[in-house]
Design goal:
Layout: H1 2-40
């Protein structure tokens, strides 16, 4: 039904936001690690 489709789209958007947040945290961690490695040199 239309309600099921709407709920599925909302869930998809929520999962996409969560994925983006996780990707951002991984990128930030990677940048921090690179900074620490460069400081040690």
């Amino acid at each position: 039904s239309t309600a099921d489709l709407s709920e599925s789209l909302v869930n998809l958007m929520v999962f996409q936001r969560a994925f983006e947040a996780n990707a951002k945290s991984i990128t930030t961690s990677d940048e921090l690690l690179n900074t620490l490695i460069n400081l040690k040199r």
